[in-house]
Design brief:
single chain, 5 strands, binds zinc ion, alpha+beta, elongated, five-stranded antiparallel β-sheet
Length: 145
């Protein structure tokens, strides 16, 4: 395995660092995230040190999602969230990991992604505000005071 120097995920996989292991198969392991967004927040990690999920083999990707699905169903059963958030990362720790997060409506992650969606929609709304008719209307209303 092409282990990188001081990779915390490789250390966990090799048993050199502690983690709360939840589930594993030959190619992937699921652990609790030590900085959870919600109770039960997990990471699914490839056993091979590869930065990005799309650089893994098809078998490794299938394993990641199989392990994720097993744990997601346990999360649904134990925590009864609205849904399980899944997000692939490899930046801060350059070793493929899926974030698997039980998400309830209105919790921190739900609010964050709702804010992102609002941000996506805002350019059109802001563009409407600067149309001549809208500007003239605002000027007229404020000018009346
Ligand atoms: Zn690694």
């Amino acid at each position: 395995m092409e282990k990188k120097k001081s990779c915390v995920f490789c250390d966990i996989i090799e048993g050199k660092a502690h983690a709360y292991k939840i589930h594993e198969d030959e190619l992937s392991v699921c652990i609790l995230d030590i900085q959870p967004y919600t109770k039960g927040h997990c990471l699914v990690i490839s056993k091979r040190h590869v930065q990005w999920w799309h650089e893994l083999s098809d078998e490794e990707n299938a394993s990641l999602f199989k392990v994720a699905k097993v744990v997601a169903n346990r999360m649904m059963d134990k925590f009864e969230p609205d849904f399980i958030f899944l997000y692939a990362r490899g930046r801060r720790i350059p070793h493929t990991h899926l974030l698997l997060i039980p998400t309830h409506s209105g919790d921190v992650l739900d609010r964050f992604f709702n804010a992102l969606e609002n941000f996506q929609e805002s350019p059109q709304e802001l563009a409407r505000l600067k149309e001549p008719q809208a500007m003239a209307e605002a000027a007229k209303l404020l000018g009346q005071g």
